[in-house]
Amino acid sequence: xxxxxxxxxxxxxxxxxxxxxxxxxxxxxxxxxxxxxxxxxxxxxxxxxxxxxxxxxxxxxxxxxxxxxxxxxxxxxxxxxxxxxxxxxxxxxxxxxxxxxxxxxxxxxxxxxxxxxxxxxxxxxxxxxxxxxxxxxxxxxxxxxxxxxxxxxxxxxxxxxxxxxxxxxxxxxxxxxxxxxxxxxxxxxxxxxxxxxxxxxxxxxxxxxxxxxxxxxxxxxxxxxxxxxxxxxxxxxxxxxxxxxxxxxxxxxxxxxxxxxxxxxxxxxxxxxxxxxxxxxxxxxxxxxxxxxxxxxxxxxxxxxxxxxxxx
Length: 312
Prior knowledge:
Elements: H1 3-15, H2 22-33, E1 38-41, H3 48-58, E2 63-67, H4 74-78, E3 79-84, E4 89-94, E5 101-105, H5 112-115, H6 119-124, E6 126-129, E7 132-135, E8 141-146, H7 159-163, E9 167-169, H8 176-185, H9 201-212, H10 218-233, E10 237-239, H11 243-259, H12 267-277, E11 283-284, H13 291-301
């Protein structure tokens, strides 16, 4: 299956259960193909977990779901070594992180210690338990949902954890037509009952390789770096974007260009992705404007490259 056909099929499949949210569906696919991790933040009941499950159902990859709760232990995520009395040796029992797509539901309801169990897995695609390192499956993506941190029973994600998420999106409430269609269509049947995989793991691996090979001109690379550098010196920000953020911004732009049917990245790809790739990593100064407003201003003030962006 070629890239364009597979991408359209996956997006159409997701949109069967996510009414009126094509931008969220595309963001989830872009992050997946860019080998990143996605954080979906919004109030309860707007379809965060549904989006994560729809992506998992649309591709023939292994999917594991973790319900984060205050009593969840790090070993529930990474796995644990158990003594086997018959063999008289310790045997490793893999945790829920050993899957292609890991759905972390309400990640900020677990303690920071449990949240940090994902740090090594998300960055290095491996888990170390009792001094032994276990490599995770490829592809590997964490799709986590969280409620706004000011809601009861939540913990704010540490900066190091937030920085490992390639993008953060919000679902938002559906419009009137989409909500009406939901009310009429989901009372009698579960939309997941008929949702089947439309792309094999081989298709996904080929798509990831194709996205990785998308051309990025030096001018566009410099544009992404200029935006990231500007966040580090802006008077309204206490913490700017990390180098990891710049790398992930360019990687996501390559995946978006591929999904859009191009073999090169445009400055527009950077502009579209900056609002979902950078804000969750930044910390504003006390009394400053919202992070989103600051990022919008920085993008508006950064000169757009005038040179060639297509491969010669």
